[in-house]
Structures are given as C-alpha cells and as structure tokens.
Write a structure and sequence with these properties.
Order of helices and strands: HHEEEEHEEEEH
Number of helices: 4
Strand content: 35-45%
Helix content: 40-55%
Shape: elongated
Low-confidence stretches: 8-23, 27-40
Largest sheet: 8 strands, antiparallel
Number of strands: 8
Mean pLDDT: 82
CATH topology of the largest domain: Nuclear Transport Factor 2, Chain: A
Amino acid sequence: MLRRIGGVLLAFAVLGVLSLSAARADDKDKDKGAKKDKDKQLDLDKIPKKVMDALKAKFPTAKIHKWSKEKDVYDVEFTVGNRKCEADIKEDGTLLEYEQEIAAKDLPRAVKDTVEKKYPRAKLEEIMEITQVKDKKESLRGYEINLVTADKRKLEITVAPDGKVLEDAGEEKKDKDKKKEDKK
C-alpha cells in the first residue's frame, strides 16, 4: 500500500514539474509574441528613408515608440535617453518642428505666470518645448503643457515664450459647451 501511495505521489510530482515547464515555455512564447506585435505595430520599414535620415541627423540616438502619417507629414514620437520627444517631418525629409520634454522649473517666468493666472493651482503633468524649423533655421515657438486643473479637468495649453496663449483646449471646450447651450 505504501508503494502505491509513493508511486501516486511521484506521478503527481512529475506532472507538476511538467506543467510548470510547459507554463514557462508558454510565457516565453507570449513574451516573444508581444515583442513581435510591438515591432509589427511600429512598422519602421514603412517610414521613408529620407524621414528616418532627417530624424537620425537631428537626433542620432532616437528610439522610436510611435509614428503616424497625415498627408505627407510623419509625426514621430521617440525618446532620447529618458527624454520624450516628437518630430514632424515631411516625406521629403524636411524637418518642420520638434518637441522635447522639459521640467517645469525650466519654463520661462512669463509662461509660468500665464498658466498660473489661467489655471490657478493646476498640476503640470507634461511640458514639451516646441522648436519650429523654417528654411533650416530653428526658433523656439512655445511650450505645449498638459495639465490637470484644480477641479480635476485634464487639458492642454500652448504658450509662447513671452506668455501669450497660442492654443487653449480649456477655452475651446468652453466655447463648444457654450455653443451647445445656445442651440438649446
């Protein structure tokens, strides 16, 4: 009887080891599949060589995370080290604009004052410094700021270096809401 119980326990132990091995192999296959899916989603080979060359010329260590195309402009999201970046590059390789993440402490005083005045006690979540490129000359266009207002609304505001508001998603939403109310 003891032999029978020992044999059954041994069989369960062997089955347990085999099950764990199979599960680990399945997990590894899933990990490989997820990596392949991610590579497939990026389809970097679909980005024209001129666009990639322009990106690598400006940002040699860029690691692309996402890209899209609208008309003949490629919007490429990437990182350089730990810094989030984005670039708009025409199909012919012309760099139109790029954005680089910066810290709130690096914002000009005029920009900080404008944001604080429009959205008191807002929490700044992401700040991108926008550089426009025209005729191969770069100029600072402004700062795209994603924030959460004191009343927990998430929105985006773009402010010029001198503090002038260029775009305000909060104002646009208010305008849309007002138009809806007017129609009623």
